[in-house]
Specification:
Length: about 250
């Protein structure tokens, strides 16, 4: 079957998932674009709801085409539904996995109101790469199933335990389970990362790019912590998260 019209209902549904968070939440589905990410989704065992490949992609990636039960679309339609500037012509809609959050290790990163989708995806990817047990996001963070977060996480989102939850309540549960929770803030009470012992069951909260960690979450944490820097006002949130992840890994 070859789709040639932009008015095709399946393509319209795909585009709506790309552009509308409420649609993703309502349908329980999200989109994946690109060869590597589609292969990661297959390897992770995600349940696929739809798949499309352009005519060029079928010729270029025949092995993937055999693995994917897909619909063929024209190259022009591939450009039309793509969320990237240079699409590879492979597009998949998958069901959002409904998994219980069970940390895969002792170190956790908590994100409080992080709005930049690229930062969120990078944090998830970095957390897996540096052996963290998982990532927890407040409900007002960028949608983890948005195209930019999915791309930024580069498959880590399909493997690493990730969940969305109100942080004060979640932090209380962590503390009851023996975790020590640090809020990454710069104030007179904060301890330098060089002095803190980020070992064992440990979680670090990274705040919003502009306003930082919310007062309610700071009050919920056990201690405030900061990264000493020179000649700059602040660090990018994803970079700060990477430094804390590496510190937790080393300890």
């Amino acid at each position: 079957m070859l789709i040639t019209s932009r008015k095709n209902q399946a393509l319209a549904a795909y585009r709506e998932l790309d552009r509308d968070r409420k649609c993703r939440e309502r349908e329980g589905r999200f989109n994946i674009e690109g060869v590597r990410l589609c292969e990661e989704a297959l390897s992770a065992g995600l349940r696929l709801a739809a798949a499309f490949m352009t005519e060029t992609a079928e010729r270029r990636y025949p092995e993937l085409g055999e693995r994917l039960e897909h619909i063929t679309i024209t190259d022009e339609l591939g450009d039309y539904i793509a969320d990237t500037k240079s699409p590879q012509g492979v597009f998949v809609t998958a069901e959002i996995p409904r998994r219980e959050f069970v940390p895969a290790g002792d170190g956790l990163i908590l994100l409080d109101g992080l709005q930049d989708a690229g930062n969120v995806g990078t944090v998830i990817r970095t957390a897996e790469a540096l052996g963290m047990g998982g990532v927890v996001l407040s409900p007002d963070c960028a949608d983890i199933w948005s195209p930019k977060v999915v791309r930024g996480a580069m498959g880590s989102l399909f493997r690493l335990p990730v969940t969305v939850a109100p942080l004060p309540c979640f932090i209380a549960g962590l503390q009851a389970d023996g975790y020590r929770v640090y809020a990454a803030v710069l104030n007179e009470k904060a301890r330098s990362i060089d002095e803190a012992v980020l070992s064992g069951k440990c979680a670090v909260v990274i705040g919003n790019e502009g306003s930082g960690v919310s007062a309610e979450v700071i009050n919920s944490a056990d201690e405030d912590i900061y990264i000493p820097i020179r000649n700059a006002e602040s660090l990018n949130a994803a970079i700060a998260a990477a430094i804390f992840c590496n510190e937790m890994r080393r300890k």
